[in-house]
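Dear support,

We are seeing what looks like truncated structure output for some complexes. This example has two components. We would appreciate it if you could run it in full and send us the complete token output so we can diff it against ours.
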Amino acid sequence: MSSLVGFSSLVLAIGINFYLFLSRYIFKFQKQKFNLFIRFSSLLTLLSFFSLMYAYVVSDFSIYNVFQNSHSNKPLIYKISGTWGNHEGSMLLWLSILSIFSFFFSFTKNIDESFQRLTLIIQSLLHILFGLFIVFTSNPFLVNSILVNEGLGLNPILQDPGLAVHPPILYVGYVGYSIVFSIAIAGLFQNTDDEWLYVAKKWSLISWTFLTGGIALGSYWAYYELGWGGWWFWDPVENISLMPWIAGLALVHSLMMVRGEQAIKKWIVFLSILCFSLSVFGTFLVRSGILTSVHSFTADASRGIFILLIFFIVTGFGFLVFLLKEPKKSNTLNLLFINKVSAIVINNILMIIATLTILLGTIYPIIIEVLYNKRISVGGPYFNSTVIPIMIPGFLLMSIAPILSWQTNKIQNSKKYAIGFIMLSILVLIQSYFSDFNTWGFVGLLLGFWIILASIIAIFSSYKVKFNIKFFQIINPHIAHIGVGIAIVGITCSSVFQNELDFNLNEGDKFNVNGKTVLFQEIENTNKINYQALRGKFIFDIEKNQSKKIEAGKNYYPVSKMITSEAGILHQWNKDIYFILGDQKNNEWFVKVLINPFVSFIWLGVAIMIYSGFIAVTRR
Amino acid sequence: MKLNHFFRILLIATLGFVFFTFKIFAVENIDERVKNLTLELRCMTCQNQSIYDSDAEFSKDIKKIVKRKLQEGLNERDIKKFLVQRYGEYILFRPLMNYNNIFLWSFPFILLIIGLFFVLIKTKGKKI
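Here is the complete output from our reference environment:
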């Protein structure tokens, strides 16, 4: 039943969008009616999505997709998240979010009516493309040909609260760029005024903020679930989400120039098209099965080709319109060494270089395999030694960029900054003498703290401190940059100053971590609803009263015969103590303890960035 | 003080510190060398994990081999060469800097130079 409802509403929604697209050339709608049709098709798409979710919740195994990816004795949250824990469902989620964006965009006020309609028409086109993709190659509503009582289960790695919410948030970010894309294309067709730039800014900020949240959730999940103590691996799938993120960051910054009346429309349109192209490209690479990872659910060539086709249509169409309908040359840039305009231009150049480098590094192994039939890897060391050095000038610049002037190359209170920088360098140098010296550690700490310090100096010396919303809107760029600074400190400390301790232990042994005694209490084996849990129980700092319990171990999922590791993490404000339970050998358990200093700063920094993303949306 | 003065100081200070720091590179002990090398090697039996981070049997073996070879006095380059002969270039997370990969390694820096030229040309004629 739910498959019938889901499939017919999905097809009907595509039909409505097709009708709207044709109607543009046949007869004119009234605005009210047009928007009603858009909203109706959005609701139908959502209905389709929720009927699939319903099938998952009630474990309706007559639907093939549910049979393949669900199991009746699974907690409710994973039944719900199972909806998008597979290729077909995640594509339906993608389409639903696309239509939600159209839905909200149809409510936008203070915008030219025909411009809004054109934007929504382009959204409809995208809806048709992705809708047909779902119907023809990844239909989640196919009926199971055999009668079964039980499903095959969800990949255990995906059975985690972090991963339950990671895909929807990431998709809001990815798909949000569709509306930015549509706005930019519409702006090319209707070269009237610059009002659309403000609209584009709002939507690109929303997308970027969600993308930040989605990536952060993914890497936090990698940190506590994959059990190797790191949180970023330059895995192809991570790189793919990072590319639209950096390009989107460049877009958000160049949209700032609209306020300085230095609109470089051409560049903004280019970036808007690029962001969405990268999002679609990312979907293609992940879903095609070319890259092997937890994200590629099944490898099916026809799907890959279809998405590749969509990618070429979207990108080709976007860039073709861009070339044919090039925006009129706007006023020339007031580039000085160094004012706000040149700072933003440099920022954009560096970010595009970073994006292209990551793109090359990610697809390079594929190119080599196709050309020479040889497998090579391009991993973390490559990106660390290319992307990071290239970004360093940008990091230096961002510390003072928000207070630079649009017109002149003078800077207020420059003495304060110079003194601050010198003092800070000396402090960091002293710190590095008293710890193990490391060049990257030194550079990272100096950069991170410098960004924080310069932003604080800027806030207190350039603005009157008040505590109302307006003040927080004005200092928002500084707040965002402080977030980046904090994250850089966290990233540097946790990667450079990480400490590893290995132990071979019996139950009841005591051992020493960071000057604190830890008791390895016992090993416990328990049966949960859908898995068996093996847990090593540790008590940290046993000699004190406020000792903490830590559990580290493994889960065995009998349905899919898989083992996942569950790290035990003790969070302290300045460090994480990360326990990994290894194998048992000669009655002794191998236990690995990682001390990750200042990891919490990374998440704090990201949270601040997300906060200022939302604050920026409220500001015109 | 004009901004460019400030930037000059900033640049000189940073460069000075960086060169200074390269001079006092400490001599690494063997465990650190094993760590640094195995971080750049792929665990062939895992999914996207370095040998250092992985606890698979394969990784344990490679760690032992690397340590033994370092103790025998071989340097990182020889060990990488040995591993590439045995397992192919796929094992290296840092692609070899050779003729084949020249595009991969030079690409970002070519872009950087182009970008730098762009900024310099556009700001030309303005007083610095």
